[in-house]
Amino acid sequence: MGNLEKKLHHEKTLLERRILMGLAAEWAAAAEALPERFRRLIFPPLFAICDMGGRLGRWHPQRAEIALHPRMVFDHPWDAVKDVLLHEMAHQLAAAMPGGNSEPPHGPVFHEACRLLCADPRASGTYPTLQERIAAGSLRENDRLLLRIEKLLALAGSHNRHEAESAMRKAHQLIRKYNVDLQRRAADRSFVSLFLGKPALRRFRECYHLARLLQEYYFVQGVWVSAWVVEKAKMGRVLEISGSCANVQMAEYVYHFVNRFIDAEWRRFNRTRRLNRYRKTDFAVGVIEGFREKLSGAAAHRQTADETALVPISDPLLDRYVQHRYPRLRSFRPDDGHADESVIGEGVRRGRTLVIARGVADKGTGERPRIGYRKQRKVGKTEGKKKTRRSEAKKVRRSEKNELLMKS
C-alpha cells in the first residue's frame, strides 16, 4: 500500500469514527426530545456502518445495533443521514412499546413511534432519499403553474435588464398564486424539511438575514437546529427549512443563488480594498436587505385590492407541522456588532440589482454538501506531475496543429 493509499485509508477511518460519534449524538438529541415515559423505554444502541445490499439502514434487536449503509453516510448530506437514522430509531422504540413485537415491522405501533420522533416511516429499504423525494415531489403538486414559474425564471436570465426584471416579478407573483391556490383547495398537504448548507459551529450575521428573507417571500419556515458537524466532531447548528416540496426546492435554489451572487460581488468590491471577513458580513447583509427592498417594492407595485386579499399571512398547516416537529421553539435576535455603514450601503446598492434567474430545478445549482471522504481526497505530488505533463503535451500537440493549419 503506497503513501497515498495509506493516507486515504486513514482519512476514511477517521471520517467513519466521526460519523459514528455523530449518529450517537443525534440519537441522544432525539431521545431527549421524547416524552419521559417513552424515553425510559430505550437505551443507547451500538452504531455501525456496513454494507446491507439495497437497504439504507437497519435496526438489529438481537445486537441492539443501528447500522447504516456506507453509500448512505458517505454520498448524502447529513439531513438525509439523520432521516434514515430516525427511521431506524423508530423501529427501536416500537420494539420497546406495548404491542410492538407482535405486529408487522411497519405497523401502527411503528407509525406512532415515527410520529413521536418526527421520523419518516418510509425512509428505509429502496425508498428514495430525502433529496430524491423533494426533486420528484415538487413537480407533482401543480405541474402547469410550476412549469410557468420555471420558464419565467429562465427568462430572468435575459441580458435585457427590463425583460429580466419583469420576468422575475411575474415569477414571484405566480409563486404567491401557487401557494394561495394550494391552501384553498388542499385540506391536507404533506411537508418536508431540508438543511440549507452544512452544519457549522459558528454562523455569520448574513445567514440570519437570508433565513428571514426566505421565510417572508418563499413560503417556507426556517428553524436553526442542532446538527452534528462532522469535520469538527461536535454539535453545531444549521438552518432547516420546512414547506411543500416545491417551496423547499425553490427556497434552496434562492439560498444558493444569493450566496453565489454575494461571493462574486464581494470579490469585485474587495479586489483592491483587502477588507476582512467582518466587512464581508456587512456587505452581505446589505445585499440581502437591498434584495428585500426590491421584492417588497415589487409586491407593493402588483398588489391591487383583489391581490392583497389573496396573499396569505401564514399557512396554518405548515405552522402545525413545524410546531409538532419542534414543540419547544424560542426566538432570538443576533447581535449586529460594529457594522460599517458605507460597506452595507454598497451591498444594498448591488442587492437592488439582483435578479433570481434560471429554473426551479436548475441543474447548474451545484450538488448539496456530502460527507464522503472522496470529496476530501488531495492530489499527490506524483499525480500532480502527471497532470502537468499531460497538459504540456496537449499544448505541444495544439501548437503543432496550428502550424500545420497555417502552412496549409
What's the SSE pattern? HHEEEHHHHHHEHEEHHHHHH
- State the domain count: 2
How would you characterize the largest beta sheet? Answer: 3 strands, mixed
Low-confidence stretches: 304-312, 359-365, 373-381, 404-408
Strand content: 5-15%
Computed CA radius of gyration, to the nearest angstrom:
25 Å
Helical stretch tally: 15
Q: What's the pLDDT, averaged over the residues?
A: 81
Helix/strand-derived category reads mainly alpha
Proportion of residues in helical segments: 55-70%
Main-sheet strand order equals: 1-3-2
Between the first and last Cα atoms, what is the distance in angstroms?
52 Å
Indicate the overall shape: globular
Q: Quick one: how many beta strands? A: 6
Describe the structure.
The structure is a single chain. This protein is mostly helical and 408 residues long. It folds into two domains: 3-127, Zincin-like; 137-373, no CATH class. The chain has helices spanning 3-32, 36-39, 70-75, 78-96, 108-117, 130-137, 143-155, 161-185, 205-217, 245-269, 277-302, 305-310, 316-325, 341-351, 381-407, and strands spanning 46-49, 57-60, 65-68, 192-200, 221-229, 234-243. Strands 1-3-2 form a three-stranded mixed β-sheet. A hairpin with a 4-residue loop joins strand 2 (57-60) and strand 3. Helix 7 (143-155) packs antiparallel against helix 8 (161-185) and helix 10 (245-269) crosses helix 11. It starts with a helix and ends with a helix. The model is unreliable at 304-312, 359-365, 373-381 and 404-408 (pLDDT under 50).
